[in-house]
Amino acid sequence: MKLYYSPGACSQAPHIILNETNANFELVKVDFSTKKTEHGEDFNKINPNGYVPALQLDNGDVLTEGVAIMQYLADLKPEFGIAPKNASFARAKLQEKLNYLTSELHKGFVPLFGNNTDEVKNAARENLANKFSYLDSILETTAYINGDKYSVADAYLFVISNWTKMTGIDLTRWKNVLSLVEKVLKRDAVQKALASEGLLA
Questions:
Q1: I need a surface site. Which of 35, 61, 84, 159 has the fewest CB within 10 A?
Q2: The pTM is what?
Q3: Same domain for 137 and 178?
C-alpha cells in the first residue's frame, strides 16, 4: 500500500492507523503547491480532488477521504481492536464521532488556513471553541472519544487538535481534550508517524 500525505495534514491520522496495525506501506509525500508527489507523479491523477490523504492499494485501487481510509485499515486488521465490529451499535457511534470530527471540527479550521479577514478568522475560532467544548463534555465521562477504548477517532482528534498551535487557539481551555491529546501523543504509533513526517523536535 501507498499513503499519499503531507506532514501534519489530516493524512497523519491514517498514517497513525497504518502504524497501529503494523501495516506494510510506503509513504509518498505530496507538494500541494505543484500537485506533484516526491517521485514526480501528477497527484491529481491519483486523487482528482487534489488533497491528501489517498491510499493506493497494491492492485492500484485508490481510496480517498480520511475517515473512510481509517475505517478500512482498522477492518483489515480487526485483531487490533481500533474500530468496533461492523453493523454494531458501537460502530455506528464511532461513525457518528468521525462524521462530527470531519464535518464540524476539521472543516471548522478551513477559514483559519486561508487568506481571510480577521473578522472571518475570529468567527471561525469562536465556532471551533463551541465544537471543542462539546468534545470536552464527552470526555468528562469517557477515557476516549468513543468510549473506554482507543479508536481511530482518537487518532483523528489528536491530529486536528494539533492545528490549534498554528491558528491562535489555546487548547488548554479544554482540559479533557488536552488530556486525550497528551495520552495519544505517547503511543508508539503516533511517535513513529511524527518522526516519519519530520515533526519531532
A1: 61
A2: 0.97
A3: yes
